[in-house]
Amino acid sequence: MLKKIYALLALSGALLISGAAWSQQADNANPEVVMHTSLGTITLELYADKAPKSTENFLQYVRDGFYENTVFHRVISYFMIQGGGFDANMMQKATREPIENEADNGLKNERGTVAMARTMNPHSATSQFFINVQDNPPLDHRGKESSREWGYAVFGKVTAGMDVVDEIRFAETGARPPHWDVPLNPITIERIEIVD
After folding, report:
1. What fold does the segment set 31-195 form as a domain?
2. Segments of the chain scoring below 50 in pLDDT
């Protein structure tokens, strides 16, 4: 009888440990979003563990519906595709305050990664982001002495839909002063949803 009791206690203890481990793993899981575009869907894993401020900033814009009907306004086929700030009429949307640059998180601007777009000020990123269509080491963090050294903060990666990214990257572009490299046929981000 005692053996049965000990066996049950051991089993319940193992289940508790397994449950705790599963719960911790679930807590540590990086969020995932699906971006619905006019050319198809792109799934992103966001690196909340490495870029918590950038990830939460992006997710808040998603929750607010900010990205609905914005466009990829800058597309350079050998470099990156950029969106998250303009509507189809190339009118810039009002944003929240800029966030701290997290480019020193060890992540690299490699093909398929998503990073925060910014001005020459390293800490000026708001809603705009870009997806690297090739490895772009000049955008990586190298120091904190200048804007160029600071780099651009990677906060996620495409996990599905790189075929859509590649279709966007080869879209025909032109000038819509003062903007350059704008797709001639607007490529719309219809919505972004968080995967539960």
Report:
1. Cyclophilin (2.40.100)
2. 1-26
